[in-house]
Structure formats: structure tokens, C-alpha cells
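Human: If only I could read C-alpha cells as easily as an amino acid sequence. Take your time, and here it is.
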Amino acid sequence: MLLCEFSMTPIGQGESVSKYVARCVDIVDKSGLEYKLTPMGTIIEGEWDDVFNTIKKCFEALKDECNRISITIKVDYRKGRVGALESKVKSVEEKLGRSVKKG
């Protein structure tokens, strides 16, 4: 299992790219994978192939309309770990002894 944070930004498509982000979030949402949308990217939890196939679908959904796309991908793999999307934050909160804002 892994956590993967990614952002996909079309370049040359104007100042606001929310319509492209929405297109990708729709793909992620329909994938059935656990995810969180943040202001700076999307975090997905799942098996390697499932996560990267979902990211590829996002790319495929944008590439015909966008001549240039900047993609940032950050991966945290941990063998046998499930539920990290929630548990990593909870672990920090336990050490702080309080809740923190979540993205």
C-alpha cells in the first residue's frame, strides 16, 4: 500500500485551472480509491498499480487539450500498511495531545 500525493497543472491554459483539476478529481473519485483533495494536490491511498493507473487516466483526460502539463508526484510506500490516509495525521495529533486542522 502507498500514499501518493500528486498535482497535475496544465501550463498555458490561463490563470485558473480548476476545470482541469475537477476533471482529474472526478476520475480519482470514480476510481474507488481512498483520497483527500487539498488546495495544493490530491492524496490517494491504494496499491501501486491502482494509484498510478488512476494518475495516468488523469493525464490522458488532459493531454489532448493541454500541450504542456506539469506533474508532481510524491510517494510514501509502506509494506502492509493500510489506512495511512487517516492514521498518519492521527498519530501526530496523539503526540500533540490535540486535534489539528486537516487539509
Notes: The radius of gyration is 15 Å.
